[in-house]
């Protein structure tokens, strides 16, 4: 059996992902209640938040034109341009996440929202495909729990869910977070 060699997780990449997540969920533009909103609407609202994070990141790292660097390092699903056309196919379809960060790390970003835990699993599968296919080094997957009682987000304290989240990070470089909760 062949072993998958993934990009090494460093303190810097983990910090980048944690700060990206915290920037998104703490942004005043981040929609806390997504009831009656299509996922594509929320994704459109996430674009400027992610872009803002990248501008701040590149500014802090001394880039002369952090805005230009951020724009050249960020893509989203459906965006015109060459990046999506360069993706290979797996099982006859391209692995194209909701968003792509190409610098400082090659990161696929998946966003899902639902009252149904089935969509959590679908997103995990998509996320694993992004790294196993070697199209991306890391995945940041944000799941927005639409339940008033937060039953999906709160389920992550169960042993099986903890094990799954640890495994997808350790073995597949999928950094998964839930909102609300963590």
Account of the 3D structure:
This protein has 182 residues and is α/β, with parallel strands linked by helices. The chain has one domain: Restriction Endonuclease (3-Layer(aba) Sandwich). Helices cover 43% and strands 18% of the residues. The chain contains 6 helices and 7 strands, in the order αααβββββαβααβ. The protein has helices at 11-26, 39-60, 66-72, 118-132, 151-154, 159-172; strands at residues 74-76, 89-90, 93-94, 99-101, 107-114, 138-145, 174-179. The strands form 2 sheets. It has a 5-stranded mixed sheet, sandwiched between helices. Helix 4 (118-132) links the parallel strand 5 and strand 6 (138-145). Helix 2 (39-60) packs across helix 3.
Task: Please write out the topology.
Blueprint: H1 11-26, H2 39-60, H3 66-72, E1 74-76, E2 89-90, E3 93-94, E4 99-101, E5 107-114, H4 118-132, E6 138-145, H5 151-154, H6 159-172, E7 174-179
Parallel strand pairs: 5-6, 6-7
Antiparallel strand pairs: 1-4, 2-3, 4-5
């Amino acid at each position: 059996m062949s072993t998958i060699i993934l990009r090494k997780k460093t303190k810097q990449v983990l910090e980048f992902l944690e700060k990206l997540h915290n920037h998104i969920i703490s942004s005043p533009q981040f929609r806390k209640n997504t009831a009656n909103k299509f996922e594509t609407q929320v994704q459109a609202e996430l674009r400027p938040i992610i872009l803002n994070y990248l501008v701040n990141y590149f500014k802090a790292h001394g880039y002369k034109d952090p805005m230009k660097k951020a724009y050249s390092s960020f893509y989203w699903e459906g965006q015109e341009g060459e990046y999506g056309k360069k993706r290979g196919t797996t099982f006859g379809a391209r692995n194209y996440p909701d968003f792509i960060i190409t610098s400082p790390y090659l990161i696929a970003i998946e966003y899902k929202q639902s009252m149904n835990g089935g969509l959590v699993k679908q997103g995990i599968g998509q996320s694993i495909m992004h790294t196993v296919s070697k199209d991306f080094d890391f995945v940041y997957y944000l799941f927005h729990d639409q339940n008033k009682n937060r039953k999906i987000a709160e389920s992550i304290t169960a042993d099986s869910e903890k094990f799954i989240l640890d495994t997808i990070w350790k073995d597949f470089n999928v950094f998964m977070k839930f909102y609300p909760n963590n």
